[in-house]
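>> received
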Amino acid sequence: MAAGLKTIIALSFVLAIGFLLVILSSALWHNFLPLIVVATYVIAPLPNWICSRCANPDDFMDSAGNGIVDFGRFLTGFLVLMGIALPALLAHSGAIEIPAMVMSIIGGLLIYGTIISFSMFFQEQEEF
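>> returned
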């Protein structure tokens, strides 16, 4: 139980740093556009989770195809790449500053990494 508590504390610390970086990238340069990254990284794990639930509704048969799971992984990868490319595009067009882009990308990756780590550490074990 102590390892679980340490894991939750470490993940919440990393998540707070990620949110702090994204909020500072918006607040320091008085521009709200880097906050879009938070939405993309929070939504990114959802297609993978939904498609993995829809892929095999029957526990007794493993004959279902992996097309739905692959589609969920594709959408998740698209959203993660969009979380990196969108601040780069905004910085290239001059809508945000370069340091805001860097802070937004690093903070977004920390947020997404925390979400994925949380789901890996606290995954339910299947019982047969």
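>> The helical segments are 2-27, 36-43, 45-55, 67-93, 98-121.
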